[in-house]
Amino acid sequence: MELGKTYFGPLWRFVEAEDVTDIDYNGKEIWLTNIFNERYRAKDSFVKQYMTPAFVEQFTNRIANVISQQFNKRNPVLEAETPELRVTILHESVARTGRTISIRKTPPVVRITEESALRNHYCSKEVLNLLLNLVQAKFNMVFCGMPGVGKTECVKFLSGFIPPEERVITIEDTLEIRFSKTNPQNDCVEMKVSEDTFTYANAIKSSLRLNPKWIMLSESRGAEVKYLLESWSTGVCGMTTLHTDDVRNIPDRILSMLENRVDADRLENDIYESVDVGILIRKKKSTRGEVYRYIDQISFFYRENSENKISMILNHGELTGEFPAAVLDRLSLHGITDPFERIREEKEAWA
Question: How far apart are the two ends of the chain, measured CA to CA in Å?
Fold first, then answer.
């Protein structure tokens, strides 16, 4: 679906602005988020002049018509997608401050680079090397943090170091990873799920028949995580994201997503066998008022002597603790003797 300038009217100036990532209208104000994760309010004069009830109604009708969907009290949520935008509108019957519009940009751009990660204090050189080594050694990774910290951006960055010949399957309800666009040299299948016709469970099961090496689920938020763990247990590698504010909460967060207690009891050990690494991303404001993101925690999950264990390697942005022997052994199988030193330049070797 394509939505051009005529659909967005006065909002188009924000849609085409390269530094704007999110446009949120709450019924009376427009709030903008930029690529630096700074959030600020549009001028009141702009809202008063352009965000009239007539325009808001016209914009809603355009979106509803293009996707052939009703929008009223019985159908209070309107969602539409383009290759680079996601539009969500809430009816005033459920959004009591007034009709709400959210526009999120999902361009096929990787905003994190090795250089920017170091320059912007996203992580240290040692941590960067560790993460790239974990990709090379095919560890299963779960990225966590609160909404808006950039979990998917971290997935997009690290997945760029997957060798081109290793087939990647992405599974999403809204295309955000955009792996085939940012890594055109790689073998990739992108799956888009829907609640009615092709669920996450369907997609994960189907992907196993497509000879994947990596399965990437944009966000784990329900019972489908059980199927993801099962796929990882077969030897398929993977990455996913979930909402929690501490890597040590990842197992409990996964268990809470399961539909019944029987699944939870049975799968607790599977979590520690299938999930290898937890990575927590946070954002905070500097003394100069700038908002920045950084990797705050890294932990390993494993089983030893029939016990489930968590080993913290990074906490509060500082390296701490020792690597479990099982992790060092697995890294050594891929020629990595020092987790903090890269043995070769990956992208040059795979070019």
Answer: 34
